[in-house]
């Protein structure tokens, strides 16, 4: 069955960039899908029912009409987009597209996604090393007010370290 005719269920959290990628691609390609909201914050990815769908306990995950299940946003969007104009026909351009996909997952998402600390759920040397020069951003004419997540993180680390707020 071609994907165009298949019903699929996307299990996703509406505030997750990884899940929105799947939604945007499916919508752009006109692929019909049901969206099942799974809240990461409410720990709905940790229920036995959800873990039976994706033992990794993560969204997005898609269940296709034939009951096959696929996780990992990049695997999902690449699968959805096979044969569409979203995947360049030229082999080198396709490789360049992969380059951006890998970059996004490895560098962009990790830099932009909102986390409390750089590693795990608590202060580590990574936060302390990174906070040192981030506090001087204004000296390079960078106004952190434009980057509220960074500013929140900066405040959190300064508070954790009991040091004065730099800006
Ligand atoms: N590399 C995966 C990352 C998936 C991921 O990190 N999902 C998060 C939401 S953005 C999640 O489900 N977190 C719940 C958890 O890990 O407990 C992808 O691109 O799909």
Describe this structure as you would to a colleague.
The protein is α+β, with helices and mostly antiparallel strands and 167 residues long. It folds into two domains: 3-97, 3-Layer(aba) Sandwich (Glutaredoxin); 112-161, Glutathione S-transferase Yfyf (Class Pi), Chain A, domain 2 (Up-down Bundle). It has helices spanning 17-28, 48-53, 73-81, 91-112, 125-134, 148-161, and strands at residues 8-12, 33-37, 61-64, 69-71. Helix 1 packs parallel to helix 3. The model has no long low-confidence stretch (mean pLDDT 89).
The percentage helix is 40-55%
Number of domains: 2
Question: So how many helices?
Answer: 6
The parts where pLDDT drops under 50 for at least 5 residues are none
In short:
The chain has 167 residues and is of the alpha+beta class. Helix content is 44%, strand content 10%.
What are the salient characteristics of this protein?
4 strands; Glutathione S-transferase Yfyf (Class Pi), Chain A, domain 2; 6 helices; 167 residues; four-stranded mixed beta sheet; 2 domains; alpha+beta; Glutaredoxin; binds glutathione
SSE topology sketch:
Layout: E1 8-12, H1 17-28, E2 33-37, H2 48-53, E3 61-64, E4 69-71, H3 73-81, H4 91-112, H5 125-134, H6 148-161
């Amino acid at each position: 069955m071609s994907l165009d005719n298949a019903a699929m269920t996307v299990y996703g959290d509406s505030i997750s960039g990884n899940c929105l990628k799947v939604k945007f691609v499916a919508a752009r390609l006109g692929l019909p899908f049901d969206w099942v909201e799974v809240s990461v914050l409410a720990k709905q990815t940790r229920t036995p029912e959800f873990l039976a769908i994706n033992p990794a306990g993560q969204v997005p995950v898609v269940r296709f009409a034939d009951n096959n299940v696929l996780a990992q946003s990049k695997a999902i969007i690449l699968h959805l987009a096979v044969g569409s104009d979203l995947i360049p026909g030229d082999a080198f351009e396709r490789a360049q597209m992969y380059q951006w996909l890998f970059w996004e997952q490895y560098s962009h998402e990790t830099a932009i996604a909102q986390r409390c600390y750089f590693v795990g759920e608590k202060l580590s040397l990574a936060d302390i090393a990174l906070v040192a020069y981030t506090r001087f951003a204004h000296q390079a004419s960078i106004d952190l007010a434009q980057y509220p997540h960074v500013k929140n993180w900066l405040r959190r680390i300064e508070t954790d370290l009991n040091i004065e707020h730099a800006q």
